[in-house]
Structures are given as C-alpha cells and as structure tokens.
Amino acid sequence: MPLISLKDATVVVLGGSSGIGLATAQGAQAQGARVIITGRSAEKLHAAQAVLGNSARTVVLDVADEAGTRSLFQELDHLDHIFITAGTLVRDTHLSPESATLRPAMDTRFLGALYAAKYGAPKIRGGGSITFMSGTAARRPLSGAAVASASCGAVESFARALAIDLAPIRVNIIQPGFVDTPLLDALLGSQRNEILAAAAARLPVKRIGTADEVADAVLFLMRNGYVTGITLTIDGGGLLV
C-alpha cells in the first residue's frame, strides 16, 4: 500500500509556533497539507505566520485548557493528523516545591495529550493519526525533574493504549533527545553553549539534533499507515551512552 499523501490533508500542530512544531508544520505544508498551529504566545504565532504564510491558521491556545481545546476541534468539520509538542520542565529536587508548582509539568504534557485526543479523534478521517511527543526522560529520568520525567512516561503509556482504543486511527510517540530549539535557550540560559557542547561530545553522532530532523520523523509517522503504537526515538544515540 502506498504511503499516505499529505496533499490537501488538514494537519493540526498543537505547540506549533516554534521549534519542532513549526518545523513539522512547514514540512506538512510543503507536502500540500493545510496546517493549523496553536501556541500560548500571540507574538510567537505572529512570527510563525510570517514563516508559513497566510494559508496557515494560527490559534492562541494553552493545551492544558480543556475548554479551549474542545472549542478548537469543534470548529473543524474534519481533520487528518494531530501532532502535539507541548511540555513543561519544572525543577522539583526532592519534590520540595509546592504541589501547585509541580502540576504544570504533568498537566501540560499529559492533560494536553488527553484533551487533544478526546476532542480531536472524533474529527479524524480514515488514514489519520495522532502523534504525541515525550522525551528520553521517559527512559533516562532527569535528575531534579521527577514529575516532568513521569509525564513523558505517562504520555507514552497513554499513546499505546489509544492505539488500541482509537483504532484504526494510528497513535504514536516521538521521543527526542537534545534538539537545538528555542526551548533550550530558556531552559539552559547562559550555560546553553557549554551544556550542548558537552552533550554533543557524548553522543555517537557528535552533534545535537535539529528541529527539521525530528519533524521528518513526525511526518513519517503521519504518512506510514502501517505504524501505530510505537515510540520513535530521535536522540543521536543518546540512550546508548
């Protein structure tokens, strides 16, 4: 059976205003898809619109907002593929922060995935897919970020269950390692270059990944109709070392 074409498909990227999400939207658009991207920042969405052009639709949305997510999908007659990138890293050494401070690390990634699937799946046409994003922390936990690490594992288990429950909609996970995106600027601050250089030196490929490389893997999961229930790791061999 041939690969699924993205021409004239509707692709929704939740968390698509920059980084991996924006690269995926660009890649889908280049293959003829109509893209809808969301993000929390109107300013970032405006910048993304300039990259994608007026044919793309942008929506201000926090994926942890159930009502907002429901409203987005209710407005659509149908769609073909959903990709959600959203995740939040909260430092929680010894679980010392207040519980309310820890919740976004789980709410953004897991509840965001839940709402996207709950309200998006009924609108997905035959041959469609949902792709969630976790991270290698699901297998190699981040020290001092236990809840964020747990959110990666939770969304992977969720995806495998949905691959059965929502079939024939295909549900998969993309699991990136170190990827050069604007998110790292905020997370690593002034130590960014030093930390990434050290990480690159440890990797078998001797470099950090790019948003385009992860986006290419997401597009593969959208287009290959025989792949469901998997976690696809894109980490330059990081889990091997």
Order of helices and strands: EHEHEHEHEHEEHHEHE
CATH architecture: 3-Layer(aba) Sandwich
CATH class: Alpha Beta
The largest sheet is:
7 strands, parallel
- Strands ordered across the widest β-sheet: 3-2-1-4-5-6-9
Helical coverage, percent range: 40-55%
Question: Are there runs of 5+ residues with pLDDT below 50, and where?
Answer: none
Overall morphology: globular
Distance between the first and last residues' Cα: 37 Å
Q: What is the strand content?
A: 15-25%
Assign the CATH superfamily.
Answer: NAD(P)-binding Rossmann-like Domain
C-alpha-based Rg, rounded: 17 Å
Helices, by number, come to 8
Q: What would you call the structural class?
A: alpha/beta
- Total discrete domains: 1
Write down the overall mean pLDDT: 94
**Overall number of strands:** 9
CATH topology: Rossmann fold
